[in-house]
Design brief:
The protein is built from eleven helices and no strands. By secondary structure, it is mainly alpha-helical. The protein has two domains: about 190 residues, no CATH class; about 55 residues. The protein is globular.
Length: about 300
């Protein structure tokens, strides 16, 4: 990659990655073209233990507690304070849930919310899960991974490894949330309220376009979309995409993060790519970028030895 002299260099300390190349791993003899985990049945995806359900149950408990206290007229001053606290708590949880950062999955609390606008460029699978982990709630973005062979456990591991938060307990929570998301995303994307992997298997074909500008959010958050500063997107990221997974978005975020360029947002990534002559990974030109990224991710996480 060519850059003007003195503009920026790559950090060699923890939290940043240089331009080292990670050798590609060959694809397995057979890649599931539908992207579904054969061990994940319809009932696995239709899970009541989803993240959103857990938050709703928590909210319902808070609401019931507030109503119970509020019914006692002898403690009216305290009731008012309790009601206010409960109301604020429920409102805060609702905002957190809409932003994709509820208290149920604090492992991703440092990541930007689901309302962040995605960049208008190619976005690799590892980049998506590293910098925009909450955007698996965007129907097409989330389904792309499943359609290209990623399992819920693979997605969870990469999301958490990127922030050095990979634990078995954290993965369990993320997998529950992701299983709920794939159902919701399918219902929206295919406009079918009874979507499941069996009835729509013939539609879950391989995705070969990685242009993030094509992805649309759920209608409930479309009105709150906003570009985010690149340095904020880097917040909390410890293990950065490298080698063939280090695309245009990663290079732009590295540039801003290393040089303190607080003025640049996701809207500026195409311009930065042109200005600093970023180069796309050769794998990004192939129809199997997501599949080879999956093999590299599995190898990286296995070598890290943090999933126990």
């Amino acid at each position: 990659m060519r850059t003007p002299s003195g503009v920026f260099t790559f950090l060699t300390t923890a939290g940043a990655r240089g331009p080292e190349e990670v050798p590609d791993n060959p694809l397995p003899d057979q890649v599931n073209p539908l992207g579904w985990d054969p061990e994940e049945t319809d009932s696995d995806f239709d899970s009541d233990d989803s993240e959103e359900e857990a938050v709703r149950c928590d909210e319902d408990s808070s609401s019931s507690l507030g109503q119970g206290v509020g019914a006692d007229e002898d403690y009216q001053p305290e009731n008012k304070r309790q009601s206010t606290r409960n109301g604020r708590g429920r409102a805060a949880k609702a905002v957190a849930r809409r932003s994709g950062r509820s208290g149920y999955h604090t492992e991703l609390s440092s990541a930007i919310g689901v309302e962040a606008q995605l960049p208008s460029c190619q976005l690799g699978a590892v980049e998506l899960l590293t910098f925009f982990p909450n955007h698996t709630q965007w129907p097409e973005a989330g389904l792309r991974l499943y359609r290209n062979g990623w399992k819920t456990l693979d997605i969870a591991k990469v999301q958490l490894h990127a922030r050095n938060r990979l634990t078995r307990q954290g993965c369990d929570k993320r997998v529950a949330a992701l299983r709920h998301q794939v159902l919701k995303n399918g219902q929206i994307f295919f406009n079918d309220k009874v979507f499941n992997q069996t009835s729509h298997a013939h539609l879950m074909t391989t995705v070969t376009s990685y242009d993030a500008s094509n992805y649309a959010p759920r209608s409930t958050i479309a009105g709150s979309l906003a570009p985010k500063k690149l340095i904020d997107i880097a917040n909390g990221v410890v293990n950065w995409p490298t080698g063939e997974d280090r695309g245009i978005a990663t290079q732009a975020i590295e540039l801003a993060n290393h040089n303190g360029l607080i003025q640049y947002t996701t809207l500026d990534i195409p311009w930065l790519s042109f200005q600093y002559a970023f180069s796309s990974p050769s794998e990004s030109l192939k129809a199997t970028w997501d599949q080879t990224a999956l093999q590299r991710a599995r190898q990286t996480i296995e070598q890290a030895g943090t999933y126990r």
